[in-house]
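User: I'm writing a tutorial on reading structure tokens. Could you give me a worked example: one chain, its sequence, then its tokens, then a sentence or two explaining what the tokens reveal?
Assistant: Sure. Here is the example chain.
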Amino acid sequence: MFNEMMRAEIWLQDHLESQQGIEDLASRLGYSTSQVRRRFKQCFGLSPSAYRDSLRLEKAARLLALTPLSIRTIASQCGYQNHSAFSRAFQRYHNQTPRQYRQALRLKLRHSPFCKEGGRKPPTFEIHHSEVCHALVTRLYRQPHNTALSMLKTWRQHAKGTESLSERLKRGRIIALMHNTPLPSETDRIDVGPVVSQSEAQGIPIPPSFRLLKIPAQQHAFITVKSLEEIPDVVQYLICEGLPAERYHATGEALQVEWTQEEIVMRLPVQKNR
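And here are its predicted structure tokens:
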């Protein structure tokens, strides 16, 4: 049952801009709407509609903090057709208006040891256009007393079905898509698993809790970090100082972290300022 509700949760995330209802989700899963509502709430503690509302408002928070998009544009991209309704819903969820939240978060994100006030030498980064890649990923949800980084370190212990992966995949390059970093979240989630080649992707056995993910080509800010613990501070530096100096900004899409035993590479999706 959990694998089916995980697919339902991923569907909700992928359709935040859509006005499709829970009926569409139920039809896709082959259940009645009442079954989906009941089973989803058992797994996630919220109804599908309430959970999607929280995803929309957390996406709005990321776009407000990380991008120069107007509040009206952000509302539309988060599935709100009415600007006033978005502002009211945002204030109820975050206890601040969208404008107040944007100002407060941008000030807070400046508190990184790599920013000017922090005094540490900032890391070197490069902006490149990355190619399409494929990964076999499972989704992890924040557990009590676990941070996103601690879950990342021990992802095989949290994920179901890793024992059925081949030894080559277990020993190979791993990628994680961190959907909420660097902002706090009530719905923290990470997609993580081995990178696979295009030829492998066509016929690889997929464990029930995994899915094959095609990660599109895009511009990224690339940084090699010394440890996973550095990631939040590095992201804050990029957002507040590094990217603006190069006339770029983050897009608000998931941070990508790719690693082997030898290195950890962080990729933050970016766009050129207009």
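What the tokens reveal: Strands lie at 126-130, 133-141, 174-178, 189-196, 210-215, 218-225, 248-250, 255-259, 264-272. The CA atoms of residues 3 and 209 lie 6 Å apart.
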